[in-house]
């Protein structure tokens, strides 16, 4: 059950009578269910959701009711949340650095699969996880060959991954491999490259893996106007490199949830080439510190604004000078204080990363059937 009723109104109607002072996060459960169904039809393996992308109860329960059978979790709090909302789903604990207490919490809560990228962390797991647990060695491609290397924080080199995989098998746990291409990756070939490397690592280790977790990283497809099928095809084709094909798992965060939300922020002030917003990089727009803004539409009291555009630098509301979007926004020339900028595909990394710095960061979630705006 959703906490929020689905309101029969449009984004424009809602905002034009809105009295609150913060951002509005519009959620469409039907768009989320449709995206999940697209993954379930096209991916050809177990679809799980990376909880960190949007740890909202209504999101998790919409996915659970849509038939999602697994979650990628990274902390005891995410484990408890996933268990509460979707008690029978499999939990994959894929943050490769954990305290002993965190490992024990995961074991007590029946975590089925654990990722690892380092010897000490592997020994920590082998001493604690049950015989039937899966241990997935997370690897990264060498920087030279990588299509995407978003400052890889985690991942063993392929030679190390092969040695660790052999150790997992020898210790009697279910050996597996995993990787994460990096977020918002629009090139299907990146997955192909990683799947091919996974086959080489398993061969080098002399281990047959039953499952391969190809991570997340899929883009917000509406915003980037990309189809998902080429990604699924690239992954399936690359599986041919395995003598015995493993079952696939994916763990999209953004790819599942981004398109199911829009974020509306209000213009506080227009000053020459600049605008000041009610939300910024300490709040719902934190990703725009380092990424381009998704497409958006601007709403005035009278309706959606059209006409010629010009770039304007967009500042957030706090007094910190880093609180500014990386790229200027191409905004209609005529703008007023009080106008709303409605960003599309804002379901991922918004609510989970918002702070209350300087007294800002209030985001109200509103559930609608569709997200209609001239993006
Ligand atoms: C964050 C994360 C994901 C999800 O990433 P997206 O880019 O949102 O799809 C998947 N797997 C792991 C291990 C992650 O850390």
TrEMBL record:
This is ornithine decarboxylase. It comes from Marivivens donghaensis. The keyword Lyase applies. Pathway: Amine and polyamine biosynthesis; putrescine biosynthesis via L-ornithine pathway; putrescine from L-ornithine: step 1/1. The keyword Lyase applies. Belongs to the Orn/Lys/Arg decarboxylase class-II family. Residues 34-258 form the Orn/DAP/Arg decarboxylase 2 N-terminal domain. Its cofactor is pyridoxal 5'-phosphate. Keywords: Lyase, Pyridoxal phosphate. It catalyses: L-ornithine + H(+) = putrescine + CO2. Its EC number is 4.1.1.17.
């Amino acid at each position: 059950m959703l906490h929020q009723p689905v309101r029969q109104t449009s984004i424009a109607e809602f905002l034009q009578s809105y009295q609150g002072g913060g951002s509005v996060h519009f959620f469409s459960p039907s768009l989320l269910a449709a995206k999940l169904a697209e993954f379930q039809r096209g991916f050809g393996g177990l679809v799980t959701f990376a909880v960190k992308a949007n740890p909202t109860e209504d999101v998790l329960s919409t996915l659970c009711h849509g038939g999602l059978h697994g979650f990628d979790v990274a902390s005891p709090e995410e484990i408890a949340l996933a268990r509460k909302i979707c008690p029978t789903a499999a939990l994959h604990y894929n943050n490769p650095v954990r305290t002993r207490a965190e490992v024990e919490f995961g074991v007590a809560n029946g975590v089925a699969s654990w990722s690892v990228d380092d010897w000490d962390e592997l020994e920590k797991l082998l001493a604690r996880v049950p015989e039937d647990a899966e241990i997935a060695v997370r690897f990264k491609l060498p920087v030279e060959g990588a299509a995407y290397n978003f400052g890889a924080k985690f991942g063993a080199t392929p030679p190390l991954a092969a040695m660790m995989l052999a150790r997992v098998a020898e210790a009697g746990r279910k050996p597996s491999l995993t990787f994460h291409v990096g977020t918002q990756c629009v090139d299907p070939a990146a997955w192909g490259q990683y799947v091919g490397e996974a086959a080489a690592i398993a061969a080098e280790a002399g281990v047959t893996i039953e499952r391969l977790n190809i991570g997340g990283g899929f883009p917000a497809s509406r915003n980037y106007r990309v189809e998902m099928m080429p990604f699924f095809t690239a992954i399936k084709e690359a599986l041919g490199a395995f003598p015995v094909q493993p079952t696939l798992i994916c763990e999209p965060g953004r790819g599942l949830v981004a398109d199911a939300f829009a974020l509306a922020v209000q213009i506080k002030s227009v000053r020459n080439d600049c605008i000041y917003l009610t939300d910024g990089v300490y709040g719902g727009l934190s990703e725009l510190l380092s990424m381009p803004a998704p497409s958006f539409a601007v709403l005035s009291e009278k309706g959606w604004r059209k006409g010629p555009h010009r770039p304007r630098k967009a500042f957030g509301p706090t007094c910190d000078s880093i609180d500014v979007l990386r790229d200027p926004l191409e905004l209609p020339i005529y703008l007023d204080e009080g106008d709303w900028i409605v960003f599309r595909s804002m379901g991922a990394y918004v609510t989970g990363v918002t702070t209350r710095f300087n007294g800002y960061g209030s985001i109200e979630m509103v559930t609608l059937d569709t997200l209609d705006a001239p993006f």
